[in-house]
């Protein structure tokens, strides 16, 4: 299997504070992986570590088979890693269409374009000339995902994608992500929402206090076993 993202014995944090402790994880081409855990256990720091926002103090991080030492949040898409950040980060002075076009700035070749995003998310077509920040929370999440896909990534990373969304929108999001994966894009979903990840992911890691507390195939994870680490 081709490794798209790998952490080996990684210690990382901010300033002198260590958030991740001897972390090991791996996502290969074609995989759908979830990272679960309560708030404050270091889930977002995993993203920040490979984007160069958090400081790596020990260990090795690899992206697309290469050391991630020089990768930053504005260059990850060039090597095939797109991130949908927590909070979505929609550009306020751009329309829906312009936000999507911005996602294609790295000019990676692939099947994703504005028309394909509109096909997956028809509401974005209807509101193409609306400012992105004028959309509802669910529509903004669709826009953030569509913008990330415009870079034609090998790996799509989503940080708390269900945050603030109604259950019916989470159901729709799960179906959208399954479609993305069926098209060949690998997924890394960082979440607390068991309902979402159980329908999308095939493998999981549970994070506790900056360390992997449990991992395995998704079909072996139950709500009962998760109660030790997150509220379900």
From TrEMBL:
Keyword Transmembrane applies: no
InterPro entries: AAA+_ATPase, ABC_transporter-like_ATP-bd, ABC_transporter-like_CS, BCAA_Transport_ATP-bd_LivF, P-loop_NTPase
Annotated CDD domains: ABC_TM1139_LivF_branched (cd03224)
Keywords: Amino-acid transport, ATP-binding, Nucleotide-binding, Transport
ABC transporter domain span: 5-232
Domain of life: Bacteria
Keyword Lipid biosynthesis: no
Annotated GO biological process: L-amino acid transport
GO molecular function, one term: ATP binding
PROSITE patterns reported in the protein's UniProt record: ABC_TRANSPORTER_1 (PS00211), ABC_TRANSPORTER_2 (PS50893)
Gene3D superfamilies the record matches: P-loop containing nucleotide triphosphate hydrolases (3.40.50.300)
Stated name of the protein: ABC transporter ATP-binding protein
Source organism per UniProt: Azospirillum doebereinerae
